[in-house]
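Supplementary material to the annual report.
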Amino acid sequence: MSDKKKDKMKKIVNRAVRKNIWKDRVFEALVIFFSLLSIVPLIFILSYIFAKGFPKLFIPEFWVGIPPAGQSKTAIEAVGMNVGGIANGIIGTFLIVFMGGLIAVPFGVLTGVYLAENRQSKIANAIHVAVDMIQGIPSIIFGIFVNIWWVTTMKGGYSAIAGSVSLALMMLPIVIKSTEETMILIPDSLKEAAMALGTPYYKVLLRIVIPAGLSGIVTGVLVGLTRIAGETAPLLFTAFGNPNINVNVTEPMETLPTLIYNNARSASPNLIENAWGASAALVIIVLVLNIFTKVVVNKWKVKF
Amino acid sequence: MESKILEIIGLNAYYGDHLVLKNINMAFSEKKATAIMGPSGCGKSTLIRTLNRMHEMNPGARVEGEILLHGENILTINPIMLRRKIGMVFQRPNPFPTMSIYDNVIAGYKLNSVNLSKLEKDQIVEKSLKSSALWGEVKDLLHRRGTFLSGGQQQRLCIARALAMNPDVLLLDEPTSALDPKATMHIEELIVELKKEVTTILVTHNIAQAGRVADYTAFMYLGELVEFGTTEKLFTVPSDKRTEEYLSGKFG
Ligand SMILES: Nc1ncnc2c1ncn2[C@@H]1O[C@H](COP(=O)(O)OP(=O)(O)OP(=O)(O)O)[C@@H](O)[C@H]1O
Ligand SMILES: [Mg+2]
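Predicted assembly:
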């Protein structure tokens, strides 16, 4: 190539490179723009909820009382607003979510271990398909299903335990998948080490494999609990709601989501105010669960 | 002649249809170290894994023939019972990551729910760690995780874990291939020392290592036992041409 030709080549390349650099900048700007755009609704939602509900979180009565009876505008003008509390919803949420976890965890963990241990089997494949399908089912269907099967047909009636069952069904795929994914990562060498010591298979699973993957399992459980803590639809058909504090799990029970749903729909301004406070409380509870999950994930990691 | 603790008669081993051990016949002398050598893929690991019946855990894997431990066919003993008599140490150190050093050593008892008094446990831990030449280094760290140790220390911890069960036979599958020369030397000295207590069967790629620690050496090639005899004889006057070629580094 002559020098002239070389110069020409260089110019062409330079121009192309410059154009690419320019495109690169535009692309980066677009990425940043859309990322920011997508958090705008989040900021709006959170700021609105907190503006409306946050002040109530500092009223002690709000944590121990129950929602007030509905009052009309004129009555409020006469005696003032009574926001009441959300204790029935908080107690119910913790009870129902806890029982849901209690149901989902043993089934979920054992299924996850089974899937990881029998990767090739036909049953495992069938379970995989089923788990994916359960995960794709809209949550309201679980509510209707438990309603038809338990509440109505088996005459269980609306109850907290029915709510827990519907939430457990939702939580199940999350626990199964996280358990399976963790178990697959556990090196076979650990299992072999335990086997070579003459350990029965079930002990190898219970004492070596599951403890080694505990952080992953716990993470899955916490993610699942967080996921069901804010769930409303299935509870409307199962736990139903209850304006009073109730700890009998065979009776209808209020939860924060159903409390928000029921109160926000009412015409009474003080019930609507109550729902705002409950929303702020629910967001905070879920947020704390989320942060707690992250901390646990980082703290409990087992190295091999 | 010494008494034979373990005898292999007409052993074939398969992975599915793939025959990887072809009519192996050999006997291991009690409280001696036997080295098994051969090029990669010749079936060394498979052979020692048949001895504690870990081979059969692979899907589709099976064996034919007889393996006699003290004259009793191990293929008819419950694998769980058998593995308490025949311990194994693997190529990569694999202490249990969720357990302390102390618990790792007595893991064989804990995992089988054998109830021991604190004193018994302390004694087993101390004795096993002393036998595996690790006691001095870890006696003040017994309640820390085993995974904090160096690779060589982890491997000696795994040896202690196997020794704690008082096995008759200790299988070692390339126990030093993941270790540095110093750690390797430690393990080799340990194997020599262990001959007082147990029969050791050692798979190794390191010819010099076999020369240093083994009383007997076996040479395998493509699933066959080519030659088996005292290390001295095999190293100085090998009777098979393939053994000679292997020892002179022509393959493997
Ligand atoms: N899990 C398995 N499934 C199928 N075939 C296997 C399996 N493990 C080993 N093999 C085959 O069995 C033969 C013997 O393998 P083995 O691991 O016993 O060899 P080795 O002598 O220990 O080799 P290396 O020195 O590389 O460890 C090889 O041909 C190998 O491909
Ligand atoms: Mg091998």
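DSSP finds eleven helices and ten strands in chain B.
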